[in-house]
Amino acid sequence: MMLIRLFLAFTLLFAGLVPANAQMPGAPLNIDASIAAETQTPAPGQSVTLAIVMKPNPGWHDYWLNPGDAGTPPVLEWDLPAGVTAGEIRAPVPGTLIVSGFMNHIYERDHAFLVDLIIADSALLGTKLPIRVEALWSACTDRVCVPEATDLSLDLAVGDGNIAAGQRAIFDGYRAQIPALLSRDGIFTVDGQQVRYAIPYPANADLESAYIFLKTPNFARYTAEQSVERRGDWLIITSEVKPEDQVYEGQIKPSEFTEVEALLAIGENDGLLVRLKRGDTPASGMNFGGILLFSILGGLLLNLMPCVFPILGLKAASLAKMGGNEAAAKRDALAYSAGVILSVLALGAVMLALRAAGEQVGWAFQLQEPRIILLLLLLMAAITANLAGLFEINVGMPAGSGKSRFGSFGTGVLAAVIATPCTGPFMAAALGAALLLPAAQALLLFAGLGIGIALPYLAIAYIPALRNRVPKAGPWLATFRKIMAIPMALTAVALLWLLWRLSGQQGLLIGVGALAALLGALFLAGNAQRRGKTAMLMAMSALGIAVASAVILPRQPVAAHRNSDDILAAEEYSDARLAGYRAAGRRVFVYFTADWCITCKINEGAAINRDETAAAFKAKNVAVLVGDFTRRDPEIARILARYGRSGVPLYLYFAPGKDAQILPQILTPSALTGLK
C-alpha cells in the first residue's frame, strides 16, 4: 500500500499539479468514500454487486478509469476470503475538465463505482465473508491535487441471495448510470494523426450529444476536438491519436493498435461502452456513386470560378477557329479533357502518396511551395504576353494537326493547375471522402473532378446544338484574346503577391527580376517571329530564366504575417485556445484560409471582414480564430481532415455546449450575422 501511495503522489507531482495538502493520517477526506452491497446474503455460484460510493466536497473531483492527461484512476486493493473473486470496476460517464492545457476525465458530483463479487459454487450456507478493500484515488480542484485513501469493509454471509426492494432500487439507480456494452463492435481507422471512430448507432435513435472517451490508454490525444457526424446507422467521430513522439519506449504506438475500448457519451450521465477494431470506417452516408457525382458536380462548378473561367475563353477561341469541323472539335475536346483529367489524377496521386508516407498535406499542397508559385507566375506571364500579341504560341488554338492537339492537352493541364486554388460546393465533401477511401476509389474521385472541369467543353464539342451557337472566327477574335489577357495578367499579379507572402522581400525581388527577364526574352522572340525567323533561342532562354530563378529562390519560408484588413481582430487558431473559449461558454467562429485560395479571399472580402459581421460578432461576444494554411502546416492539415476536408476553406461555428457547425464554403454576410 505504501508503494502505491508514493506512486500516486509522484504521479501528481510529475503532472505539474500541487500535492501540497497531501492527506495526513486522520485528516478529513476531500472526497468521502463508503461501501455497500446489494444483498448481505449472496448465494453460492452467484454474484453480488458492491458500490464504492464517492461524494466529493464542493469544488473537488476525482477521476474516471482513464483519467486523461493528468490525475490517477481509482485503485481498489482487495482482501477477500477464499472462494470470492472481484470483477473489474464499472464506472459511470465522466465529465471533462481542461486545466493548463491538460484534459481531465472527472467526477464532480456524487457517483458510485460498481464491482461484482463472484461467490464460488462450493461456498457453504452461513459462511461468513469479511470483505476488505483499500480504496485509493486522487482528489483535486482546478489548482491542487492530493492522493487520498481509506479502508472500507463490510461483512457478508453466504445465503439465499435475497435482495430487499429498497436496496434493489438504490442499486438500480447506480446501474442506470453505468454505460451498457454495445453488442456490435465498432471500427476505427488511423490516418497519420487523424483517427475516425465508426460506432453502430441506429439512424432513428435520438442523440442528445456525442463524445468519445478512450478507455484504452496511450492512444488518443485527449485535448483534440471531436467532430460528430451521423451516417445512416453509423455514428462517425473524428479526432486525433497521441503523437508517436510522445509515446514512451516500450509502449504500443497508436499506429500499432488493433483494438481499443471506448465510452460513447450520448447525453448527461448516459453512455455506451464499445469495442472498436481497426478497419475501414464508412466514408459517407451516401454510396460511392453519390460521392462520385459530388466530385463531378464540384469540378463542373469550378468552371465558374475566376481562376478557371479564363481558360474557357481560350477554348471558345479555339472552337471559333474550327468553324463547323465536327471531327476536329471532338479531337480537340478529348485532348483538352485528357490534359485536365490526367493532371488532376497526378495531383491526387501525389497527395495520397505523401499522406501515406506520413506527410500532412491537403488539396493544392503544391501552392504552398514558393518555387511552384514562381514557375506558375512565369507561366501566367507568358500566357498573358501570348494573348496580348507579344509573341505567338498556339496554346489552345485550332485543330487538325498533332501539334494543335498537344496544345489542347497543354491547355487542359493548365486548367487543372489553375483550378487547384479553388474549391466550391460539392467538391469539399468529395475530396474529404477521398482521404478515407481505398486508393483506387480515391483516384476515381479525382478523375471525376477532372471530368467535371472538362465537361462544358466536351458538351460543346459533342452536342451540335451547343456547338452551333459558338460564333465563327472573325475580327472579334483578336479583341477577345486581348480581353482574356486581362484576367491572366491579374492572375500573374496575384501570384507575385503570393510569392512575396511565401518567401519575403528576397523572393519578391527574384520574382520581379525573373519576370522582367522573361518578358524581355519573349519580346525578342516575338520580334524574331514577325521577321520570319526562328525564335527557338529566345524560347530556350525563357525556359532557362524560369529554371534559374527557381533554383536561387530561398528555401526557408518567411514567417507568416497577418492581414491588416482583419477587422474582426481574429486570433491565431490553436486547439488549446478553442478549448479555453468553449470552456468559458464563449461562442467561437473559426475559419481556415490561405493566401492562394481564391474562394477564401472572396469570402473574406464579401462576408467575413465586413462591418456588419464585426458588429454582430461583438454583440454576441463571438471569439474569432483563424488558421493560415498558406504555408505547409501539418497541424492544420490534420484539423481539416478531422472535419472531412482535404483543403481550405473550412468555416466552423461553435455555439455554447454544442458540437461544431460546419458552415457552407460560399459565405454571405447574413449567414454569419444570423448565427445563434
Description:
There is one protein chain. This protein is an alpha+beta fold and 676 residues long. 40% of the residues lie in helices and 22% in strands. It has helices at residues 2-14, 165-176, 288-302, 309-322, 326-356, 370-387, 402-419, 427-434, 439-462, 464-467, 476-530, 536-552, 575-583, 598-608, 611-619, 634-642, 669-673, and strands at residues 31-37, 47-56, 62-68, 75-79, 84-86, 95-99, 102-107, 111-119, 128-140, 145-157, 180-181, 186-191, 194-200, 211-214, 227-231, 234-240, 259-267, 270-278, 571-572, 587-593, 622-628, 650-654, 661-662. α3 (288-302) packs across α9 (439-462) and α5 packs antiparallel against α9. The protein is elongated. Mean pLDDT is 83; it is low at 1-22 and 394-401.
Task: Quickly list its features.
676 residues; 8-stranded mixed beta sheet; 5-stranded mixed beta sheet; 17 helices; 22% strand; disordered N terminus
The low-confidence runs, each spanning 5 or more residues with pLDDT under 50, are: 1-22, 394-401
**Helix segment count?**
17
Report, as a whole number of angstroms, the end-to-end distance.
53 Å
Count of distinct strands: 23
Largest sheet: 8 strands, mixed
Percentage of residues assigned to helices: 40-55%
Instruction: From the alpha carbons, calculate the radius of gyration and give it in angstroms.
Output: 33 Å
The oligomeric status of these chains comes to single chain
Q: Give the class from helix and strand content and strand pairing.
A: alpha+beta
Overall 3D geometry?
elongated
How large is the share of residues in beta strands?
15-25%
Mean pLDDT across every amino acid position: 83
